Amino acid sequence: MRDRTGRRSGVENRIGLSTAIISALTVSIMSAACTGGTAADKEDVSGPRQVALFVFDRSTSIEDYQLELAQQLTNDRISALRHGDHIAAFQVLQLSLAEPPRRWSQAVPTREFDGMVVARDSITLSRFLRDAKDYLRPFAQPADRDNITGTDLLSTLHDVGEEIRAHPEHAPTVYLFSDMLQSNRMIDMEGLRRMPRAGWAEAAAASGMPL
Questions:
Q1: Strand order in 103-107's β-sheet?
Q2: What are the residue boundaries of the structural domains of the chain, listed by start?
């Protein structure tokens, strides 16, 4: 269970929180590619379609300003999406895959005519990206987090992997906003309370457990 004060022990500071600052964490999977710019800038850019997957850890160990920064970074990446791309958002599960996930997934509208830039396509794209930012805002909401009782990153990444496999024609990029401390009934990295034994990952994979 998370400490509502969000404070960390000295042990936790020593196990790598400096590398888990939410503002700097972007994990790329497979041959991900992502460039900056606005929706209008993207109309004539060729290349593989993208699937952008945003994963938000809202546990109380995450500071409010970090969630606000995650929202800013998310909006910036949404603005870079093009016609035919895909977007998905996940809130980190608390305990296991058994709980109902909080997620959102949508395809970015394609052009009405392939190879032709039409004004109404640009308008449709701009409206979609604006609405997508509104839909994802609750995923980085600092309020109402006291009832969150765990952080199951491993199960959440299983769901993320399923979303990636559902779009094999898209190049995926995962944006993971978290302090990266697994904390559920099986593994609790908070203060090293329940750490897996050596070889756990290999044994779990051999048994078919989702990692």
A1: 103-107, 86-91, 50-56, 171-177
A2: 10-206
